[in-house]
Amino acid sequence: MTFVILGCALPAYKVWWPFFVVLFYVLAPVPTIIARRYANDFENNSNPCLELAIFITTGFVISSFALPIVLARSPVNDPVIQWGACYLTLAGNIIMYLTLVGFFVTFDQDELEYNTC
């Protein structure tokens, strides 16, 4: 979040349009969380509900990377955001989604207990 806020608030940029990626941060894990809650336990077979949720989540992730690039590539004479703000927002995206992946990987391990040696 620090990189996203810096991309918006630094005196060189002063435009808060890149902050809309926070909406994607909130929406991205929702389909996967819902699908895992209602999904049946299929060990070897594919689960269509979970696959659809992963597809929708992928759409949110790609959109969060595409939004700052599209805003920076707007008309050359007057872009909506500068490329520096775009790079800071993309760095924030990478860190945020790596955190979400780490969260899902850590808490998906049902058979492991933390207090065993």
Describe this structure as you would to a colleague:
- The chain is mostly helical and 117 residues long.
- It has one domain (2-104).
- It has 5 helices and no strands.
Q: Can you summarize this structure?
A:
With 117 residues, the chain is mainly α. Helices cover 64% and strands 0% of the residues.
- How many discrete domains? 1
The number of helical runs is: 5
Approximate strand percentage: under 5%
What is the residue-mean pLDDT, rounded to a whole number?
Answer: 84
Question: What's the end-to-end separation, in Å?
Answer: 35 Å
Uncertain segments of ≥5 residues (pLDDT<50)?
A: none
Task: Provide the gyration radius in Å.
Answer: 18 Å
The coarse silhouette is elongated
Q: SSE order in H/E notation?
A: HHHHH
Number of strands: 0
* Structural class by secondary-structure content: mainly alpha
| Biggest beta-sheet profile | none
Helix content: 55-70%
